[in-house]
TrEMBL record:
Residues 5-185 form the Ketoreductase domain. Keywords: NADP, Oxidoreductase. Gene3D superfamilies: NAD(P)-binding Rossmann-like Domain (3.40.50.720). One of its GO terms (molecular function) is oxidoreductase activity. This is Short-chain dehydrogenase. Belongs to the short-chain dehydrogenases/reductases (SDR) family.
Amino acid sequence: MTSPKTVLITGTSSGIGLAAAVGAARAGWTAIATMRDTGKAEALLKAAAEAGVADRIQVKRLDVTDPAGITACLDEVVAEHGRLDALVNNAGAAQVGTIEQSSVDDVRAAMEVNFFGVVAVTRAALPHLRASKGRVITVSSVGGAVGQPFNEAYCAAKFAVEGFMQSLAPVAATVGVNVTVVEPGAVASEFVSNLGLDIPALLAAAGPYAPALEAYIGRTRESFSNAQTPAEAAAPIVEALTADRPAFRIQTSPWARDFVATTLADLDGSAVQTLTGAWVR
């Protein structure tokens, strides 16, 4: 018998990453579920046990901002399993604010996790994926296609991820590696709650931006009340793992497809400005 294919997934302590790890294991993969703090693995391990796939999920520590740790983790995976067939870049961190009131260090921190972390893990994984003719699947966001108010740093990082992957895809294909980006919309997960935002304090400090921020927060709360579940958002990731020829860009819901379509057809930028401008008025 051939050994199960192996996928390494970043950011699996909650949300889409957790659901993707369980979904991949249910599809027959060995899922290397990584997270920065393995002390937060309880929810994943419980979900894996309930799904009957605990034996196909292995938790490892991986901080996507630690180059030495990335290399060590990948070397360990290949030494233990003999192969790496896929990488799912999922780890990320939100950042809410506008540039006049955020520091450049805040922006750099968002780019470090959401963009440079993806670059670093992908770079380290590619030699192994070339050997297996594998694939890179990166969880972007509809915010990687449509810039959104008070998400300047986050969307900048996701735009950078999509440009990086779109440029990498044809080159990687020449050595047998498929590249895909997955664009979720609102997902009911801990990603937003993990921000730990004190909304009243944020509004009090917003100065001239307070009315716009209040409108944005109201709209965002409404959108998350109709959010996808993490399992729904993770399902296209699992499909991309197993499809013969997955598309380069995959949205996780009809709403996400319609939203991304706005920018792809918006040659002069006016449609997106009209759409998102309504969010802050």
